[in-house]
Amino acid sequence: MSVHSTEISQNVTVSVADPSAIGLFGLAMVTLVASSQKLGITSDLSYVLPVAIFLGGLAQIYASINDAKLNNTFGSTAFGAYGFFWLVVASCWLINYGVFGVTLQQAVDVNQLGFIYFGYLIFTLFMTYGAAGTHKVLFSIFVLIDFLFLGLSMSTFGVAPELGHSLAAYSELLIALLSFYGSGASVLNTHYKRVVLPVGKALIK
């Protein structure tokens, strides 16, 4: 008597929605609120903190994880890197407020924050080249992020600090406005299956 075993293979496809809209919305919100503080429209950072943690940080990390499921290396890297950036910045603010104790608060060396900004400037420069292969709105956002980190590096290291602060503040505000547009385009163009808000063709194919 022979026993025949039959193996049945089944492919399961899991659909994941494009997470760009929520990622760009998170970026838009955190840069809008943060720029309002830099421009002197609002004061202090108490209410910037939750926006940095939940929208700048977690919303972009959520987008990063879902972009990874779509095998989108560029999107996953970008959203992940900037999401964790805002968590780092929020942690730095908490240290400055003394939330983690006086010892850490008194041991702050602001130049270390300057090197964080400078490292992200390097990262954003090559990511800008990658963004040129997506569409013009996203490329423009990355160019503005370059100027943001340049301004933050300058002001933190004390190199023309007033110019650096202004460069960072206005770049951040423009990032917010373009990110709102990009988020809206991602939602509406997908929802209506046609171009409602044009984003422009890629600069590099």
From TrEMBL:
Where does the sequence pass through the membrane? 12-33, 45-63, 83-102, 114-132, 138-160, 167-188
Topology with regard to the membrane? Answer: Multi-pass membrane protein
Predominant subcellular localization, coarse grouping: membrane
Instruction: List locations, semicolon-separated.
Output: Membrane
Asked whether the UniProt record includes Membrane among its keywords, one would answer yes
Keyword annotations for this protein, in alphabetical order, are: Membrane, Transmembrane, Transmembrane helix
Q: Of which family is this protein a member? A: Belongs to the acetate uptake transporter (AceTr) (TC 2.A.96) family.
What is the designated name of this protein?
A: Succinate-acetate transporter protein
Q: Which organism is it from?
A: Metaclostridioides mangenotii
